[in-house]
Automatic annotation (TrEMBL):
<dbReference type="InterPro" id="IPR036291">
    <property type="entry name" value="NAD(P)-bd_dom_sf"/>
</dbReference>
<dbReference type="Pfam" id="PF01488">
    <property type="entry name" value="Shikimate_DH"/>
</dbReference>
<feature type="domain" description="Quinate/shikimate 5-dehydrogenase/glutamyl-tRNA reductase">
    <location>
        <begin position="141"/>
        <end position="257"/>
    </location>
</feature>
<protein>
    <submittedName>
        <fullName>Shikimate 5-dehydrogenase</fullName>
    </submittedName>
</protein>
<dbReference type="InterPro" id="IPR006151">
    <property type="entry name" value="Shikm_DH/Glu-tRNA_Rdtase"/>
</dbReference>
Length: 369
């Protein structure tokens, strides 16, 4: 049988306690200290993935490091931990290995990891891009917004996912702002977009200020910290949060019922997919980065499909085509582990309209010169 493996990790110490409940009351400092010394853990055996063309099985292996540890511990140590998880998957029989969450971000985005493993490695970023764009376009339709008349901000624009999302979306939006920390890399991306599409993209190193002007936001920073807060978004804004850990604070959904936050990159798996690890998702739904690894195994494409920080438009189109061939599809729209109905989205649209109408000046308030 064709096989795959996928490397996961806890987002924070509370995830470690969820896996091992007897550690629930232990301080996070101790849990993270234990994680630094722990070997990779075989987390689950995945079965029931079936398309009209093939059937596969796979495994989740967890490296115990949290997202913050991956961001701040010495890079050689972090890579060693990820490579050890990959070797454990190889022993299980995985013929292609996917990198989940921060394991696909650290260092050179999988290139060094692939050099130390026999099985090919993919970050899953190409399919993540494809599904995020599908989700954003669907949200725009349901919110009654025209992309051609809207301002899009891409947070984490200089990363692998952010840059290709910006390049693909540039011809279809009214205006675009690229936001990230490195101004030089932002300028280089803006120049590339100008050459490719004729679109003049603004750049910003101030994420919170940039998103305040946005009608749409795609955010995929790779930061272990929250970047977007409730006060940062204007009424009616649509945010596609592709990042794991999330870039958007959970409080946005709790206190801003006039904005729409959706989770990018969620897909339905064909067949009768079985796994004890749900990651807060319903049965049969996985992140697109996981799905890319599954698609490659179903297609018997045992190759390093997406590695490094450069993704081509052709790669996104190819993996999207293969996903459709094998029966993968966008899993509706979801927000913070909850499915969104069209009625709920319509409610967001109406509330945003009411808020904007309340804040429009009356004729008597307009000052004429």
């Amino acid at each position: 049988m064709d096989t795959f493996g996928f490397i996961i990790h806890p987002f924070d110490s509370s995830d470690i306690a969820k896996k091992f409940p007897f550690l629930k009351r232990w301080p996070s400092e101790i849990l993270e200290a234990m994680a630094r010394k722990s070997p990779p853990i075989l987390a689950d055996h995945l079965r029931g993935i079936r398309s009209p063309y093939n059937q596969i099985e796979g495994w989740f292996v967890a490296t115990p490091l949290t997202a913050r540890q991956m961001a701040y511990l010495p890079l050689p140590f972090v890579l060693q931990k990820i490579i050890a998880a990959g070797k454990k998957l190889e022993k299980q029989g995985a013929k292609v290995i996917g990198l989940g969450a921060m394991t696909s971000v650290v260092g050179d985005a999988g290139i060094t990891i692939a050099k130390h493993l026999k099985a090919p490695v993919t970050t899953g970023n190409s399919y993540t891009v494809a599904t995020a764009i599908h989700a954003l376009r669907k949200a725009a339709r349901l919110m009654g917004k025209e992309l051609k008349e809207s301002q899009l901000v891409v947070v984490g624009a200089t990363g692998a996912i952010g840059s290709i999302c910006a390049r693909i979306m540039a011809p279809d939006v009214g205006g675009m702002t690229l936001a990230a920390r490195n101004e030089q890399r932002l300028s280089e991306l803006a120049s590339l977009i100008l050459r490719e599409s004729g679109k003049v993209a603004e750049i910003s190193t101030d994420v919170r200020n940039a998103v305040r002007r946005a009608d749409f936001v795609i955010t995929v920073s790779g930061s272990p910290d929250v970047l977007i807060h409730p006060s940062d978004l204007k009424p009616g804004a649509v945010v596609c949060d592709v990042a794991r850990p999330r870039d958007v604070a959970r409080q946005v959904a709790e206190v801003r019922n006039d904005v729409l936050v959706i989770e990018g990159g969620l897909v339905e798996v064909p067949g009768s997919y079985e796994s004890d690890l749900r990651f807060g998702l319903p049965h049969g739904i996985v992140y697109a980065c996981m799905a890319e690894t599954m698609i490659l195994a179903l297609e018997r494409r045992y190759e390093c499909f997406t590695l490094g920080r450069e993704i081509t438009i052709e790669q996104v189109q190819e993996i999207n085509r293969l996903g459709e061939k094998h029966g993968f599809r966008l899993a509706g729209l979801r927000s913070y582990e909850k499915a969104l109905s069209e009625e709920e989205i319509d409610g967001v649209r109406l509330r945003a309209k009411q808020v904007m109408e309340r804040h429009q000046p009356m004729d008597s308030e307009v000052i004429h010169f």
